[in-house]
Amino acid sequence: MLHHIVLFRFHDHIDAAAIAAVEADFAALVAATGVVRDFCHGPDISVEGLAQGYSHAWLLQFAGPAERDVYLVHPAHQQFVASVQPLLAAALVFDFADAAPAV
């Protein structure tokens, strides 16, 4: 299993309606690409104060790197990236695979 974490820091002037539209558009990628095994998202609710301005997170899970690679070049994903970039002050993407169990 490959886990794909995406964090967004929106520009200060981006309103709640625009963020809600981004959330809906991101969720639509699950069906459009056909390779996402599981998907969840939400706003930062941490009390630690370590989010560094990132306000929203998405976790996508793929069977493995090959499925993630299909997702990355899929036209729906490319269109989403192009549409969301003007709204973002920063984005962070981090992938990791399940570790092998200790023997």
UniProtKB/TrEMBL annotation:
Complex formation: Homodimer.
Classify the source by domain of life. Answer: Bacteria
Which Pfam family, an example, fits this chain?
Dabb
What the entry lists under PROSITE patterns is as follows:
S_R_A_B_BARREL
Which PANTHER family does this entry report, sorted A to Z? PTHR33178, STRESS-RESPONSE A_B BARREL DOMAIN-CONTAINING PROTEIN
| Protein name as annotated | Dabb family protein
Which species is the source of this protein?
A: Vogesella oryzagri
Q: Which segments does the entry list as coiled coil?
A: none
The record ties this protein, via InterPro entries, to: Dabb, Dimeric_a/b-barrel, HS1/DABB1-like
Ranges for domain Stress-response A/B barrel come to 2-96
The organism's lineage is: Bacteria, Pseudomonadati, Pseudomonadota, Betaproteobacteria, Neisseriales
